[in-house]
Amino acid sequence: MPTLLHRSIAEIVGTFILILFGCGAVHAAVLMGAQSGLWQVAIVWGTGVMLAVYVVGGISGAHINPAITVALATWGKFSWRDVPAYIAAQMAGAFLAAATLFALYEPQLAAREQAKGIKRHEDGGFLTAMCYGEFYPSPGPLATAEGPYRRSDWNELSARVPHGVAFAAEVIGTAILALVVFAVSDPRNASGPPPRMAPVFVGLTVALLISIIGPLTQCCLNPARDFAPRLFTFLAGWGSQAIPGPNGIGILTVYIVAPTLGAIAGGGIYQQWLRHFLVEVEKSDGASP
Questions:
Q1: Residue 199 burial by Cβ neighbours in a 10 Å radius (0-12, 13-18, 19+)
Q2: Cα 287 from chain centroid?
Q3: Burial label, 67 (beta-carbon count in 10 A; 0-12, 13-18, 19+)
């Protein structure tokens, strides 16, 4: 079995792949109009998940998400002792991916800020910070629209997605993701895909969730996906536009607490409830003549 160090390195690599592709698609869409719609961004995220799992799954299990790591530990499928190392590795991989994207896209970031009449450390800077961390509702419509940024436009947009709605969206979305992860990785689930196909269905689940929740919260589902890139932007010049940003305490509740609670709930629904139905079916089948 790989050592904790080897598994942690794998988590760094896997999370780097995920964030490089996923946040890279956001950069391309927001800054260069490279995507024609939300689904194109969503399917890149989903493919990033799939590829990351295929690359490092055999080493670390490819959690690539602190919420999934905590959910697996909560339901006895992962050691609590290894949780801090995994989360640290996931944060490191996401931070490195954000730094890489900044190196690649900095001229485009500056051009977008000039076009919107904003400075990244002042009001409106979150319109480019959204390429890294997340905000609710998604500032995408304002970031890609023609003309300068106006605070009144953000006030009008943000009134449509209050904190409670954003929190609920992240809980529900991550619960569904964890439910699928637990189900497709369970060898006892006869209706699940072959083991080597499981990453495809997890990736498709992420893409589907982004296509629904993305306009509301940018669809986090993964505390490392939000916090580490957000921390990078804070250090790279966005300052208070990144942390805490226009959502205030929401960066903690919506993007860390909600995905973690959702993953625990979704894993519990499968592990403590649905999975028992599979056991009962097996016993019934075994007793049949």
A1: buried
A2: 44
A3: buried
pLDDT tens digit at each of 289 positions of the chain = 899 999 999 999 999 999 999 999 999 999 999 987 899 999 999 999 999 999 999 999 999 999 999 999 999 999 999 999 999 999 999 999 999 999 999 999 999 999 999 999 999 999 999 999 999 999 999 999 999 999 999 999 999 999 999 999 999 999 999 999 999 999 999 889 998 999 999 999 999 999 999 999 999 999 999 999 999 999 999 999 999 999 999 999 999 999 999 999 999 999 999 998 886 544 444 443 3
d(CA 239, CA 223): 19
Structural tokens at position 172? 């529900």
Q: Which of 156, 163, 138, 161 is nearest to 220 (CA)?
A: 138
Residue with tokens 């006869």, as numbered in its chain? 190
Structural domains in the chain, CATH included, are 4-282 (1.20.1080.10)
Name the DSSP class of 78.
Answer: S
pTM of the predicted structure, to 2 decimals: 0.94
Q: Which among 137, 152, 129 has a CA at the least distance from the CA of 240?
A: 129
Q: Is the N-terminal amide bond of 137 cis, ω within 30° of 0?
A: yes
Task: Taking the CA atoms of 210, 171, 205 and 89 in sequence, report the sign of the dihedral they define.
Answer: positive
Answer for the pair 5, 13: CB distance below 8 angstroms, yes or no: no
